[in-house]
Amino acid sequence: MTIQARLDELGITLPEAAAPVASYVPVAVHGDLAYVSGQLPFIDGELVTGRLGDDVSLEDGAAAARACGLMILAQLQNARIPLDRVERIVKLGAFVNSTPDFTDQPKVANGASELMFDVFGKAGRHSRAAVGVASLPLGAAVEIDAIIALHHHH
């Protein structure tokens, strides 16, 4: 099954790839690895802002992380990398805008991790960091970046 067919089956429509907010490229490919810059969570075109442990619930934080994951896939497509070229999601880095006493960053990051399992199956299994931070660009609740191995391009 193609990844697009899998997305259709899951009822997933990828968002419009967001433009970079500073001087960097959304996706840098080196050899057979794609490094995807940190992506912010857009749900229905609206940036999810706020802080875990304050005005964002764990459930909404996980939904925001999932939205970051969708944006990672949208950026690959926008860089003309077919999702069927994904050999493995190697690593996700999740940054969670959170209060000092909030310690459930891994549960927030699961929103993105579970998306990768759902879409790519075994190839979606990855290493990860989930870190609490004092603030994020534009007040975003979550930011996630990725390292993705690609099947060799013939």
Report on the structure:
There is one protein chain. The chain is α+β, with helices and mostly antiparallel strands and about 150 residues long. The protein has one domain (about 5-10, about 30-150): RutC-like (60s Ribosomal Protein L30, Chain: A). Helix content is about 30%, strand content about 30%. It contains 3 helices and 7 strands; from the N terminus they run H-E-E-E-E-H-E-H-E-E. The protein has helices at about 5-10, 60-80, 105-120; strands at about 25-30, 35-40, 40-45, 45, 85-95, 125-135, 140-150. The strands form 2 sheets. A 5-stranded mixed β-sheet has the order 1-2-7-5-6. A hairpin with a 2-residue loop joins strand 3 and strand 4 (about 45). The longest helix has 21 residues, at about 60-80.
Set out the fold topology.
Elements: H1 3-10, E1 27-30, E2 33-39, E3 42-43, E4 46-47, H2 58-78, E5 86-97, H3 105-120, E6 127-133, E7 142-150
Helix pairs in contact: 2-3
* Contiguous uncertain segments of 5+ residues: none
Structural class: alpha+beta
CATH architecture: 2-Layer Sandwich
Overall number of domains: 1
Biggest beta sheet summary? 5 strands, mixed
